[in-house]
Every structure is written in C-alpha cells, then in structure tokens.
Write a structure and sequence with these properties.
Rossmann fold; 6 helices; 43% helix; alpha/beta
C-alpha cells in the first residue's frame, strides 16, 4: 500500500473563526493537487483542552488564537508547548489589535504569526512541511480503510 502522510492540526480558539478560514484556504490549496497529505483539524476551546489534545497524539501542529481578553493565558500556553511539548509546533492567529505582540509570541515559541485569514497560505506551507517530517507507518488495506473513515482511529 502507498504511504499517506497525515498529521493532526489543533486549533485553540473560542470562536472557530480561524479554523473555518483555514479549511477554506486548505481546500483551495489542495484542489487539483492530488496530494497524499491529510491534515486532520481538531478544534479546542481552552488551553487545558488544547494541552489534552496535544498529549493524546504523538505530534501536532497547533494554531493558537491571541486576543486581548486571553493574552496572558495564550502566551502561557505557547510557552508550555515550546518547552514541554517538543513534538508540537505552534503558530499564533491574532486580532489585528495584537500585532505588537508578534515578537513576544515568537519568543514564547510561536513559529508563525498572522493577523488576517488572507495570510493563511504561508501557514499552510509550514503545516505541510511539518506533516511531511512526521514518520508515517505503512498501512495494510484494512488499516487504510479504517484510517480513511471520519470516525476511524488514526
């Protein structure tokens, strides 16, 4: 069987706005590409839920929303991911009013910082690079069928 690269993508945001925008951008990028890359998005609503999701998978790319209301919690989450979750990489999706926090977010461990859904294509490139570096196991026919199902264990 052919190997198909797959990777979890975890969003930590209250609104779901960034995850929805990402899905549209990802579908545009993948349309007609015939990619063997499967990104499985998972939405979480709090830092604790995000850390649980990271712990449940062997490796993940995380997109964390930075808002004025949750700035300290988000920066603490970034620091936690960068110092204790070495198999995860984190990017920050921020409100425009939070642009001044870009370098603080990067110092806290963010590999990318964006303030507009129009900036998702560079993020998708990073996600692809991250996913392609994850060691994948060869699946037999039955495993590949189960893995392709939305409720199948990956």
């Amino acid at each position: 069987m052919q190997q198909r690269h797959s990777a979890p993508l975890i969003f930590c945001e209250r609104s779901g706005r960034w995850a929805a925008a990402w899905r549209l951008a990802w579908n545009r990028r993948q349309r007609g590409a015939g990619s063997r890359l499967e990104i499985r998005p998972l939405e979480t609503r709090s830092p604790s839920e995000c850390l649980e999701a990271i712990q449940a998978v062997s490796t993940a790319f995380v997109v964390v929303e930075l808002t004025a209301a949750d700035c300290d919690r988000t920066l603490d989450l970034l620091f936690e991911i960068s110092t204790r979750r070495h198999s995860a990489a984190a990017a920050v999706a921020a409100e425009r009013s939070m642009m001044a926090y870009e370098w603080l977010a990067r110092e806290s461990g963010a590999v990318h910082f964006l303030t507009s859904p129009r900036e998702l294509q560079p993020l998708n490139g990073l996600i692809e690079q991250f996913a392609l570096r994850i060691p994948q196991e060869e699946l037999d026919f039955e495993q590949s069928v189960w893995a392709s199902l939305p409720w199948g264990k990956h």
